[in-house]
Specification:
The structure is a homodimer.
Chain A (H helix, E strand, L loop, with lengths): L2 H7 L8 H14 L12 H8 L3 H14 L2 E4 L3 E4 L7 E2 L9 H25 L2 H19 L5 H13 L4 H8 L2 H4 L2 H4 L6 H23 L3 H26 L1
Antiparallel strand pairs in A: 1-2
Helix pairs in contact in A: 2-4, 5-7, 5-11, 5-12, 6-7, 6-11, 7-8, 11-12
Chain B binds a DNA duplex (30 and 30 nucleotides) through helix 4.
Organism (chains A, B): Rhizobium sophorae
Protein name (chains A, B): FadR family transcriptional regulator
GO molecular function, one term (chains A, B): DNA binding
DNA sequence: GACTCCAAACTTGTCGTACAACTATGTAAC
DNA sequence: GTTACATAGTTGTACGACAAGTTTGGAGTC
């Protein structure tokens, strides 16, 4: 292994645990084409010395890649990048549900998808779409009034926006986000006082109504702005949560 | 297992190693409902004594399940069966009959994804990313000079942008677009004269270079604009194609 | 020279121990 | 009753050792 190869390994920043970091890095190297299909990976020893982690970690990271189908290993031979490392289907697997970083990355993806979708929805929504969005919004309001977090209802409302694009790909893609966006696991991390809960509910209502009215009235730019604001604030709140627990 | 049994399995090189066996066993227990969502798995020690394998094996098996999203682990607490062990996946299956409409819908989706990605890439790209994008751009230029359509190279360049976001979800999602975005099937519909081809090549080069320089120079807004323009014009061209063949 | 055989080196698979980091729980002190 | 802390239990990480599979190169034979 050359120095240049080593340099790639040294660039991982601190995060939840060593195994995930190493697995992410190796995954990135494969997906970026740095390691090509059929090519042999560095030996476990080489990865150990390059990254400074123990063989235990290296092996668990390789087990992760193997489970994802990115590599295959053969005893006495080594590990090899799979022939078709680019899967034709996309799915979000809740790797570390406690890892807020994961949620933030998904939120980044949602930002792109939903902003465009909101714009399209504002241009194309039918009366039926508007009614459906209104219903979901009512459900959400009701859930918040009853003191719940409304995560499920929030998700359903967002989905109704995607449906209104009249482009089924948007809705189908959004379905994959549900796996990680149901925040039951970290709900307990997020202990809000009654006052905070109330403020949170008011903010949610305000932001969602802004999105809804923009789409209903066919205001494309406003719809984009509104949903970007909403998702940005959600992300910011998750970041606070992470920093608070760190 | 007898030798005869092994003979049956020799066709696929699935090794009879302890890790796979244990992982399969645990997977079966989860999928059969023996271990219910949210329920805690036995401790690593318990699995060790119950199965007789070492902790190394247990941990690698658990790493496999975690990669598949079947369980989540938390230090000091234990491993738990995931709430939604059946991840939904997103894929694009090309439909030959209305393929151009199909492409237009996918382009709409790409619009959202890639605009956001270009913005993120402008903020986060590393020198390595810049080099990779430059290489892909050179490949594309070369393909166009040689009189090809450069569809493959175009796709590779776009992918390098997604990689530069440092958010692997973007790259993984983009891979699903490849199914329909390699336009071999309608290339023959698209007979350009030499002059048209030249104009097309010049346009492609101009638009791609605009995207590249914006990302390289860290200009977020310009990157978004450039890629939106590029995809809009691509979509317009596909629409012309559809109307011409209809 | 060409071939066979085998020993050595290398790599992954498995085992064992030890300690660090994190969590929950119960107990003592206030 | 509440807080602080000690403790036990669990996962995360490190290190060393040997087993099992694969390749390579050299010794020996024809």
């Amino acid at each position: 292994m050359t120095d240049k190869d080593n340099a790639v390994f040294n660039t991982f920043q601190q995060a939840p645990n060593l195994r995930s970091n190493l697995a992410d890095m190796l995954t990135a190297r494969i997906e970026s084409g740095d390691l090509k299909p059929g090519q042999r990976l560095p030996t476990e020893q080489a990865i150990m010395t390059a990254t400074g982690v123990s063989r235990t970690i290296v092996r668990e990271a390789l087990a992760t890649l193997r489970a994802k189908g990115l590599i295959t290993t053969r005893q006495g031979l080594g590990a090899f990048v799979s022939n078709d490392p680019t899967p034709r289907s996309f799915s979000i697997i809740p790797n570390d549900l406690q890892s807020i970083d994961e949620v933030l990355r998904v939120l980044e993806l949602r930002m792109g998808v939903e902003c465009e979708a909101a714009g399209l929805a504002a241009l194309r929504r039918t009366q039926e779409d508007i009614d459906r969005m209104q219903d979901r919004l009512d459900d959400l309001d009701k859930a918040l009034e009853e003191g719940g977090y409304g995560a499920q209802e929030d998700y359903a409302f967002h989905r109704s926006i995607l449906v209104a694009t009249q482009n089924s790909y948007y809705g189908r893609l959004f379905d994959t986000f549900g796996n990680i966006m149901v925040p039951r696991q970290w709900a307990r991390l997020d202990k809000m006082t009654a006052a905070e809960r109330k403020r949170h509910a008011a903010r949610m209502r305000r932001e969602h109504h802004a999105i809804f009215t923009a789409i209903r009235d066919g205001e494309e730019a406003a719809a984009r702005r509104a949903i970007r604001t909403h998702l940005s604030k959600s992300a910011a709140r998750f970041e606070e949560l992470r920093d608070a627990t760190a």
